[in-house]
Amino acid sequence: MNSPQVIELDLGIIHVFIFTQISQFNSRFGIVENHFAVT
Question: What global pTM score does this model have?
Answer without folding.
Answer: 0.45
